[in-house]
Structure formats: C-alpha cells, structure tokens
Amino acid sequence: MRAILAGGGTGGHVIPALAIAKELKTEYAAEVLFIGTARGIENRLVPTAGYPLRLVRVGALKNVSLVTRAKTVFDLPRAVWQAGSILNEFAPDVVIGVGGYASGPAMLSAVIKHIPALAFEPNVVPGFANRIVARFVSAAAVHFEDTAKYFRHAEVTGVPVRQAFFEIPAKRGGRPTLLVFGGSQGAHAINEAMIRCLPELRRQAPGIHIIHQTGERDYHDALLAYNWFTASGDESAEVFKFIEDMPAVFARCDLIVCRSGASTVAEITAAGKPAIFVPFPKAADDHQRVNAEALHRVGAAVVVEESKLEGVWLAETISALLGDTAQLSRMSQAARSLAHPNAARDIAALAAKIAGFEEAVQSSAGVS
Fold first, then answer.
1. Which of 126, 156, 190, 227 has the smallest CB count inside 10 Å?
2. 3-class SS letters over 339-356
3. What CATH number corresponds to the domain at position 331?
4. What pLDDT, in 10s, does the model give residues 145-164?
5. How far is CA 194 from CA 177, 187, 229, 315, 335, in A?
6. Which residues constitute the domain of residue 56?
7. How far apart are CA 153 and CA 135, in angstroms?
8. Residue 326's pLDDT band (cuts 50, 70, 90)
9. Quick one: which H or E segment has residue 238?
10. pTM higher than 0.90
C-alpha cells in the first residue's frame, strides 16, 4: 500500500498526520510520502520522523490581504500541477488531506486523477481546503458528529493524540492545581488576564497552585507577577516558557485555562480534564470558538470570548470551579465522553478501505 499525506503548516495538522502515517506503516506496511510547503512545521517534524517530504508552492486564502489572496489564486493551478506530478511519480493508492496549505492542491489533484481521497477534519467546521473538496472526496474522518454533514461519506474517528493523554488517572485530592497555556508560543491575552487576576485569585482561591506556560514573549513579566503572588507562602506557582511533557502536567491539574484548537480539544477530551476555553478570535472561520462550544454543550467546558476576558471574572470562575469537586467530576466525565482512543487506527483503516485494502483491514482486526 502506498499513501500520501498532504497538508501541514502547524503542529495541529502535522502531529495527527504523523500518527496516521505510523499506523499505516505498522498495520498495512504502507510506504508513506508527505506533501507540504516550505513554510510549515512539517519541514522539521516529518524528516525527523523518518518520512520523505515533497513541497508544493501555495499560500493562504483565509484571513490575509487581497494582494496575498490574489497571489495564492494565481499560484494555485501551478500547485495543483506540482501535486499532480508528485502523484504521478509516487502512484499512491490513497491520498489523505490533513488540512493546511498543501492539502487543497494535493486533494484536488487526487480527485482529478480518480485516486481515492480521504479528508481528515479535526474541527467542527471544516477548513477552507476541506470545504472545497468535501463533495468530491471518497470519505472523510471527522472529530465531531456535527462535521459529518459537510461530507458525502464521513466517519467519526476523533483526532489522534499521544496515548499518554488517555492513561492519565483521575486526580484525587491534593492541592487545587490550575494549568494555564496558550500553545507552544503562548497566548498574550490569556497571559495578561492571568496576571491581572492574581490579586483576586489570592483572595478567592487561597492555597492554589498554578502551572503556567507563557511562551517566550511574556515569560519575564509573568515571572515577576508570580513572584509577588507566591510571596506569602500560601500560594505557589511554576512558570515555564515551554512545557515538554504536557501529559505529565495534565495529570497534576484539576482545571485548565487554554485556547481551543483541535489538537488541544482532543488532548483535553482524552485526559478528561475540565477546561475554561478562550478561543483565538482570529482563527480561520472562527473554528476555535465552534470547537469550544461543542464541549460547552455537553458540559465539559466554560467558554469566554477573548474580548470579554476580564481579571475578576476569571478569578471568580477559577475559584468557583476549583471549589466544586462534584462539578469538576461531571465536567471530566463529559470531556471523556468525546474522546476517541483509537483515532489513528480508525483513520488508517478508513484510508485502507477506500484504497481497496479491505482484506488488510480485516487481517489487522483479527478477522479471517
């Protein structure tokens, strides 16, 4: 079996794609090729994982200037032609689009060449590339039931995340602990709101422990604020520019304040952690808000718009939740109800199925 995974740009696209590639290689002895662009994080992560990477030239169409959009439209036919040349050379049995700049041209080329194509969509509302190809792809693997309506043939598989998130036990007792992060680069608005709310939080949640990943930009300001916060000795904090072992930190916390990108949402559901989501307001198609609201509807999260993120409200909400263990338990159970521990396996099986490798799917499942 030969498979192409196309897309990238951010870790939210590339990390699940690598998990799918590993499953294809392990269960179906697949030969895997990635297609990306020169600007994406795939240039670092994909070769490190041991997979070949080919590049196409294409830019953004969403949330960019008219000049950039016009240039992308001009470049798109060439990108489709470049992707088509790669497909001709590699001769894949299936093309899997994971979102991001390179996904659209590769998926369009696969559709034109009648190569089975699978769209992977981790957000509630599909990204631009997946919306373009939604009616033409052979199948789609989605995270949320509400997303299935955008595609002709969709299966709810979830988003691949590290197994360690599923193995986190429920936290019982100990000091009330809050985890705050905004992705690998941090989130300035969340950092500022946390700093503003520390005096109120000291009054309303005495004895709290805070673990805060700030990113590079706000690290020193946050460190000064937390030095004041912990001066009395009752409260404590750990401040990091970046956290390497996020599952280990998840295991220590009772509540999380964070953004609501697809990968973060998937990790939170896998770990069964209650969350206060602050969606990034400039995310394409406002997908972070929609993701957050999907968890809010089942009672797993509280959602606040960044423009309404006020220090006293944040302190009061954190204090109220940390003081209500029964509510935290209900939120945890609601989050786990949306988890998909076999996402990578199920996506790989769906890809193999549309590629005509149904016997391999049955064999991997132990069916003769």
1. 227
2. CCCCHHHHHHHHHHHHCC
3. 3.40.50.2000
4. 999 999 989 999 999 999 99
5. 14, 11, 11, 8, 24
6. 2-159+341-364
7. 9
8. very high
9. strand 236-240
10. no
